[in-house]
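hey can u run this one w/ zinc ion bound, need the structure tokens asap thx
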Amino acid sequence: MGIRFCVLGSGSSGNCTLVASEKSAVLVDVGLSGREISRRLEAVSFRISDVGAICLTHEHEDHVAGLKVLHKRHNIPLYANTATVEAVSLRGKCKGLRWTVFTTGCLFEIGDMTIEPFTVPHDSYDPVGFIFGNSNARVAVITDIGMSTSLVREKLRPCSAIIVESNHDEKLLRDSDRPWSLKQRIAGRQGHLSNAQAGKLVSETAGPDLRLVVLAHLSRDCNTPELAISSMKRALDEVGRSDVQVFAACPDRPTPLFTVTPGKAEAS
Ligand SMILES: [Zn+2]
Ligand SMILES: [Zn+2]
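ok here u go:
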């Protein structure tokens, strides 16, 4: 079997992605309430009791809001690097949780999946992206990334599916009535990827196995799914990869459950 995944919700109001193989299911970030995550898992025929681990990319609230409830009520093991554990613990409300600490850059395993955390630039303590793998597929999850780096490009190249941030349309952000300092933060090298930057990153790194791109963390005010999708498709067309499917994740409902197998990515 390949790898299945579903972005349960994505945006500044909360991020959570299910990644599963035959024997294991993992949540990447839990920025929605425990109840909402349970409800959305059921919508794609999973139960909260199927989830064997929560892996955190970083400590921002839109990635950790449901952490305490899911860990304490449902006893789901937590995985993060040292700096993220410390940052979450410092916030006070998540003291006394039991963690499994991974090292950024070092592969680890959960069930029958390998998980590779790698450094991404973002304004948090030690933010990471993840590559999930088994013998049939590799799936990347990179949200909250301020810019492309050679390490990120190297990690994406062998992937069959990429969940990537496509946060804002540069003109809509520029013209928005947000304070100048916030615009600078979002567009900065430790902020969030624009549609154009996401398109450049994916089109530069699209390897022969790539079949599917899911756009995540879209800004409500400074983006639309149509703009994000058309920007990514244009970038892929320019490098002769119009065969790659492009979807956009929403804040308020899950994407379809995707199954990625050698040479194929299907929505169910
Ligand atoms: Zn975020
Ligand atoms: Zn963040």
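The longest strand covers residues 3-9. anyway lmk if its weird
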